[in-house]
Amino acid sequence: MAAAARPIVIAHRGASGEAPEHTLAAYRIAMEQGADYIEPDLVSTRDGVLIARHENEIGGTTDVAQHREFAARRARKIVDGRPVEGWFTEDFTLAEIKRLKARERIPELRPANVRLDGSLEVPTLEEILALVRTFDTQRAAAARARGEPASLHVGVYPETKHPSYFAAAGLALEPPLLEMLHRFGYSGAAAPVFIQSFEVGNLQALRGTTRLRLVQLIEAHGAPYDLTARGDPRSYAALTAADGLAEIAEYADAIGVAKALILPVGADGALGGPTPLLENAHRVGLDVHAWTFRAENAFLPPVLRSGNDPAAHGDVGTEIAAFLGAGTDGFFIDQPGLGVRVRDQFWRDRG
Asked: Is the pTM of this model over 0.85?
């Protein structure tokens, strides 16, 4: 039997616990901390350029509200079945986006990140891939200077955000994503790339055009953005059933799932035992990547919190170790340096 692969550490929106998410600074910190993959969420500008933002609504992650010239762009739209009000990337050209600066999305929990508000640009996918290439080149040169092998490469784990919405607007995300990945030399199943989506249809279509690895994202059951809100008659609960996982295995290589679907938190505030999801997914050949681990008390099971301050850091290391012990193949984390240390210790102890 083949040896199990070492679980991967995915820097969620970069090192978003260390710098405002989806900025080159956050991605650079994540790579320096040893993350295996960095994760950009991708949306489109009006002129079809892919940029990294958590959502296409950018009122909370940029200083757009401070730009009087864009006041009239504020709008109310229906995105995946839900009303959203604010400023939307598809209403701005890239040149206009570059006039904005990134802001910390959750300043009440990450006040240290606020120091960088107003100093960081919104990056394009091309800029992110160029950063990865530069980092890999520099790391390889340093390794050679030490007489060590230079075979490691930072991977990219892009998410197509609201792909049906953007396709309906004439701004399909997949063609420019594949074109840019191919331009930077990523091709085939061995490339350090995972393309993820909360939708099913665009992943199924991608499987017909690329062998890059694909990841079906799955929300906690009953979440507001369930598949039914995305125009699919199924639910995420149906996808996590045994036959749903077998269907996913026909077009995807892994699933990225909300943590509660693997180890739910019990009424006592502690992590419970594993659900059948891991075993069932592995049985049909799917890797399982869990999201999202964050060090702040606000995001931890009650028994792992360090006190009553939501912004204080608790014992996320114990939480991660529990998921790795259950057999999780990778995990998304906002503090990737911490995740790397926990993963590496787990791997050493495993022998």
From this structure: yes
